Amino acid sequence: MRQVQPLADIDSRAPEAGRIRLGVKTSKAMKSLETFRFTSPYRDCIDALSQMYGGDVVPWTDAKASPSHQWEVITKASEIEVFLPPNPVSTWYELYAGSGLQRRCDGMTCAIPQQTGPQTWEPVDTPCICAAKSNMECSPHTRLKVLLPNVPFRGIWRLETKGWNALKELPGMADLIRQLNESGSMVRVALGIEKRTQMRPSGKRNFVTPTLTMLDTLLHIVTGK
After folding, report:
1. In the predicted model, what is the mean pLDDT of residues 93-116?
2. Cα separation of 208 and 33, whole Å?
3. What is the mean pLDDT of residues 111-125?
């Protein structure tokens, strides 16, 4: 039975229009892309993205998605213009298994889902389990929320990455853009895919990472007389 919760204590959020993806699933594993891939339940949004950035609109099905039957387009664009909503970036250490999320942590406090009813779960806090074991079992998860111009507005679009570079770079860039916006400057922002190479003892590693770029500062808004 669901407990009564005061409306003031319920967090509100914008609905999710779709996902921005950096890879595509193959028969063997996930394959990185050099251009953006979009998935959404809304055909009109995917059609608009196809018209702007190229690519063919096709049905897409994933049992883990909600809903499972959607639309997708792999575009020809490696950079797109976006708007950043308030608090656009979240970062966590997370561990998943076949049943889903096992724990979420900030490196100090770990939240573990605990069943409180037939269909209800609540997070229970405990000290970081990876730190206690001196072994990093979780992986970084960075989520970026953006708004897409010239696309039917149905909510925010979410990009998720497990890369360490994104974990280090996206929050700092988003915070700088926020500061400029709050100062009265109108900042045009581009979301991009950047190919990078990392040298390791085992050899060269090629990968892609999402980036935020300030295209320009259009003008400064003056208030008052």
Report:
1. 91
2. 8
3. 84
Region 88-106: mean pLDDT is 92
Q: Which residues contact 146 (CB under 8 A, 6 or more apart)?
A: 20, 82, 83, 84, 85, 88, 156, 157, 159, 191
Contacts of 73 (CB under 8 A, 6+ apart): 37, 38, 46, 49, 50, 53, 55, 56, 57, 58
Quick one: three-class SS letters along the chain? CCCCCCHHHCCCCCCEEEEEEEEEECCCCEEEEEEEEEEECCHHHHHHHHHHHCCCEEEEECCCCCCCEEEEEECCCCEEEEECCCCCEEEEEEEEECCEEEEEECCCEEEEEEECCCCCEEEEEEECHHHHHCCCCCEEEEEEEEECCCCCCCCEEEEEECCHHHHHHHHHHHHHHHHHHHCCEEEEEEEEEEEEEEEECCEEEEEEEEEEEEEEEEEECCCCC
Q: What is the pTM of this model?
A: 0.85
What are the tens digits of pLDDT across the range 170-219?
999 999 888 888 876 667 899 999 988 887 777 788 889 999 988 765 44
- Cα–chain center distance at 210: 10
Mean pLDDT over the full length of the chain: 88
In the predicted model, is pLDDT for residue 95 greater than 80? Answer: yes
